[in-house]
Specification:
Layout: E1 7-10, H1 14-25, E2 33-36, H2 40-50, E3 53-55, H3 58-64, E4 67-70, H4 77-87, E5 93-96, H5 103-107, E6 115-120, E7 130-136, H6 142-153, E8 156-160, H7 166-174, H8 176-193, H9 198-219, H10 223-230, H11 236-246, H12 249-268
Parallel strand pairs: 1-2, 1-4, 2-3, 4-5, 5-6, 7-8
Antiparallel strand pairs: 6-7
Helix pairs in contact: 3-4, 7-12, 8-9
The structure holds 1,4-dihydronicotinamide adenine dinucleotide (NAI) and (2S)-3,4-dihydro-2H-pyrrole-2-carboxylic acid.
Length: 270
């Protein structure tokens, strides 16, 4: 067994699956993972795909696990927490990925001093290329934080932030994959409009986004500097950039991150 111990997922939906798949890829054995998933068809699917043990009872999974990943919708949290709290004890750590739900709100479901870590991951964890940020609750130890960092480093990069910053993380990298899918989709559509076959257009758009992100990361240069290197004087790119500026692309993305951040704060209020 790895140092993560037994990992129990409460909820095996989109994000639960992304993390399970990522963990298996990072060499955590399937026998170490339990999933509480009330949707029977979904539970069967997870067992068939990944060999993980699923059951419908959250309390059973909590009892069998050292680290519990809360991967249910924020709106379900108030209903699910009493059952989870009942089976919880001091030896366990709760790692919540529920958008907006604060460590204080989670701690309120328990008696004593529950060890809680709040994380905002994203679905590229499925491909081992996630971006997560996390913060400790008031009773989490340094080891708990290190364990959570270790868990999410298995499926991507991890930043430790203040809890007040986690809503902005949600608006940026938690929801961000959706914005980037829209960019890929729209660029491919532009290619198709100009005569490329869809499969070629999609492959070119995808690789362009991937390669561009890789270059930003590897070069350490500001994206604006790298963008200038693509814009030849009087060339094709500056004509396109002018169009994007006129249509407010950057302002729209800035506003999108803000809207999602605001929604995360609202979810936290219940
Ligand atoms: N989807 C995403 O990109 C991200 C989601 N999150 C957070 O992850 C959490 C889960 O989101 P998704 O996976 O997208 O939702 P989802 O709806 O795909 O998955 C939730 C799963 O929980 C199960 N479930 C419902 N009630 C339950 C209960 N009482 N006990 C155990 N399981 C129960 C459902 O059957 C479902 O399979 C949310 O809190 C969301 O804010 C965080 C980061 C990214
Ligand atoms: O849309 C949502 O609420 C979740 C949180 C971040 C990404 N998906």
């Amino acid at each position: 067994m790895t140092e993560l111990g037994h990992i129990g997922f409460i909820g095996g939906g989109n994000m639960g699956e992304a993390l399970i798949k990522g963990l298996l890829k990072s060499a955590v054995p399937a026998q170490q993972i339990r999933v509480a998933e009330p949707n029977e068809a979904r539970a069967r699917q997870l067992t068939e795909r990944y060999g993980v043990i699923c059951c419908s009872e959250s309390a059973e999974v909590v009892r069998q696990s050292d680290l519990i990943v809360l991967a249910i919708k924020p709106q379900i949290v108030p209903m699910a927490m009493p059952g989870i709290a009942e089976a919880f004890d001091d030896s366990k750590v709760l790692v919540s990925i529920a958008a907006g739900v604060t460590t204080g709100a989670l701690e309120g479901y328990f008696e004593g001093a529950p060890r809680v870590v709040r994380v905002m991951p994203n679905t590229p964890a499925l491909a081992g290329a996630g971006a997560a940020a996390l913060c400790p609750g008031q009773h989490a130890t340094k080891d708990d934080l290190a364990t959570a960092v270790h868990l999410f480093e298995g499926v991507g990069t991890v930043h430790v932030v203040n809890e007040a910053q986690l809503d902005a993380v949600t608006g940026l990298s938690g929801s961000g994959p959706a914005y980037v899918y829209m960019v890929i989709e729209a660029m491919a559509a532009g290619g198709v409009l100009e005569g490329l076959p869809m499969d070629t257009a999609l492959a070119l758009a995808t690789q362009t986004v991937l390669g561009t992100a890789q270059l930003v990361k590897e070069s350490g240069e500001h994206p604006a500097v790298l963008r200038d290197k693509v814009c030849s004087p009087g060339g094709t790119t500056i004509a396109a950039v002018k169009e994007l500026e006129e249509k407010g692309m950057r302002a729209a993305l800035i506003k999108a991150v803000s809207k999602a951040t605001k929604r995360s704060r609202e979810l936290g209020k219940g």
